[in-house]
Amino acid sequence: MSLTLSTVSKIDGRALFAATFIAAGVLFSFAWACALPLAGFAAVAALTATRRDALQLTGAVWLVNQAVGFLFLHYPTDAMTLFWGGALGVIALLSCESAGLLARRFPGFAGGVAAFLASFVVYESLVLAVTAATGPGVDHFTAPVVTRIFFINLAAFAGLMMLKAAGAALVSRDLSKPFASRPT
Are 107 and 76 in contact (CB under 8 A)? Predict the structure, then answer.
């Protein structure tokens, strides 16, 4: 099998996106720590990658978030923190799956909106369910708090989608013609 320039460009584009996606996860982890917008990341992954790659990207962002938290932000290493770390990983993957299901069912812009909303609703619902099952603490699920988390996820989703579009445009650009002539 020989690699053509377009095949190499496609591979490089996917690798560049994956690296950028994971690097964004690191930056967001430092910025928001426990409020990492995993639902937004999961929706973008579901919309822009194959099912397998989307799950791997979502898992990678969760993993770097955990690494940043424990190595740099000094998360406690008690049983409940470790449990929640694992639970959030599973919840993120389920959010990615829900986003992927709707993205495949509704293509285009509507599918993107549906994927994001599904990811967010699944994520928050499962966090609420686990919180309720593990003891008191559901009182912080107020409308202002959930609305704030929604907008953080929406901003991450929109920013990552724009980053993906910019990267795709850059990768597909014919670099042999840096100054294409335009009709006057």
Answer: no
What are the respective helix, strand and coil percentages of the chain, to the nearest 5? 80, 0, 20
Q: What angle do CA 103, 106, 108 make, to 5 degrees?
A: 85
pTM, rounded to two decimals: 0.86
How many C-alpha atoms does 182 have within 13 Å on its Cβ side? Answer: 3
pLDDT digits (tens, 9 = 90+) for 82-122: 999 999 999 999 999 999 999 999 989 999 999 999 999 99
167-171 long-range Cβ contacts below 8 angstroms, 24+ apart: 167/13, 167/16, 167/17, 167/20, 168/13, 171/9, 171/10, 171/12, 171/13, 171/16
Is the Cβ–Cβ distance between 99 and 83 less than 8 Å?
Answer: no
Dihedral over Cα of 88, 130, 69, 161: its sign = positive
- The token pair at 67 is 């690494």
CA angle 168, 150, 156 (to 5 degrees): 25
34 contacts: CB under 8 Å, gap ≥ 6: 69
pLDDT digits (tens, 9 = 90+) for 59-86: 999 999 999 999 999 999 999 999 999 9
